[in-house]
What does this fold into?
Amino acid sequence: MNLPDSSPPPKFESRKDYLEYLQVMMITSIEEPEETSGEPRGRPRLLKTYLMEANRSLPESFEGFDFSLSKLETGLPEISFLTLRYEGKYAKFLVDCSDRRFWVLHTNSLADEAEYLFNKLVFSPKANFDKVWLPTQMMQEIANLPRNAFKGFGLNFRDFFELDQQIETPVEELIMRVTGSSSILALKALQNEKKLQNSLAYSLITVKRGDSQEYVTDEINYEGRFMARGGTSIDAYNNLIEITSKKYKNLIEGIERNSLGIKEVENRTLIKGQAFDLNFKREIEDISSFLDVLVNSKEPFRIWGIKNKITNDEYQVVGVDLHTGDSIDFEVSPSLMRVYLPEGSCGNTVLRLYTNLQHYFDSNITLNDEPLQVTD
Amino acid sequence: MQPCKHTKLMNYIIGMCKKNADWITVLSDWGYEVQIIEKEMHTSSGDSVKPDVVTASNMLLHALVFEMKGGISIQEDQMKRYSSLLPSDLRWVTVFDRANLQMDVCICDFLENHSYIKTVNHFFPMLTFSSDFLVKEGNFRNDKLNEVFKDPISLKGKLQPLSYYPFSDEDDQSYIAMHVIRTILSIALKNSKIGHDLTIEDLKNNIITFDDVVASKFNYVWKVLSWEHKRVLKSKIIEVTKIILAEEKIKENLGIIQEKKGYKITNTLGQFQKEAIRFIEELESQKGQKRLPEFPSSL
It folds into this structure.
């Protein structure tokens, strides 16, 4: 069953109705033969789900967006039916805003179109939306959860900081897809190869959750997209999304508790919070050139900044996170980036930076000298 | 471009109360938190002092009252007033047992000025920063502190913190301009995201007539700065803002960034970055020259 191409949208009287609807969306797509001829990608109608961060409500009007957006009610206040259109492309989503900050968007629209339009929505300069950016360590934690079996992984590492100035394409990249029950052995073999050790960032993992009867085989990518590759249980599918969302939210809130601000605590005025240390295993050879790439306003980092040389091995950056407009400051040495997040700024800024540095500079980066450790 | 020495010392000490990698964490390790910045305190003998930073540790029941000496402006009278400061005068400091709180005044300086500063400071222990070491001279009342600072602490390979205390009224215009330009961009983008497209004139008025909320966007420690520091800093921020928003190319790029509805603003942001750097370098090269008075006071 596909989401309807025209009105009316599906109507739900209860969460049970809604989940049954999702169950049918998932099962029918898995049981259908592969759609390859004439479609942009194989099996495009699979149930896909995007986790995103929202710092505002879903807009009623289209103003400010360079694509069209229509929102319809479904009968459940927290679930909306959203259609996005742009230049002949369209995609439809069931948007679950039960968590006001981390929304869940389900779709079985064509994969490329859904991805394209989802990106349009979250990267709109007129909105305060962002993707979730799952660090490799968190993806591994999800794979290792009880009742999960690791079924494969994808790696996508491109060195943005060793650019050939003539052609502006990365000269070092590692892109790989491994599937099957022995994937973990392949990963261990890669981890033992010294030359690859800074390049092993998960672009996706495949996880089977559940038992032999009730299960889902889910592909999760580092930008928070879930895809039901196989299975029988929408409950297992949603459960994995909820666990991921909860873990991510806890981490973001931990980061925000450490943001810098002047706070009154037990009658004391304190400079509360502290900078985050992003420690590199791979040394930055030329900090000035590194920063030219990092703060050039472009994807994937989307940071604008002014660099300031303090010593040969120490630079300071005064910047702006273009996703949110928030200030962000750095200090950088060959092995450390100290990130200052002012109070009120979004913790996602730190995780976006961290996760993208894993994919584009050093997959062994650590936060506060521990994988994803936030000190309270 | 370097922050002024006062800004550096403020950051060094605040940074020592945090747990960051590649900086000195001894104060943080012993539970010191920054509790007060630039607050005037009246001593029991009727004098008043205004320490730059007061940190306190519940673990040691001890407060460190820091006076930063980035330059050579030190007066005997100031040191005498500090000598009358008692733990009971630290009324703004909260520890679990105030009755047993001990304190030390500590003078922080740089090696190049140290020989002069110590001729005036006859009373208090000193922490002196050079490019290679942090060295203690004199003794604290607390033995743990004497122990942790007993040997020089190497600064080799350390990354100096500079953003806990972003800038002060002693910083050069170029250094302040770097922060002001960033904040102007941040304000413009944030307004744009909530559907408030300000004109450049609106933006200028918004910044020039700024209140404490806007001020905190320029410098997040604004709220705790002294009234006098705020007054001077505000006038510096306004001056720099006026100069920045008189620059045609900066204004033009900022206008495009604000009003652009679509995605293709990356090039404009790049242009804005180039213009900002050019402008800051120009200010830096004119350091010491009287550029500001040559500009009109209103636009």
Residues 137-257 of chain A form one domain. Chain A has three domains: 15-131, 137-257, 261-367. Chain A has seven helices and 19 strands. Chain A has a mean pLDDT of 86.
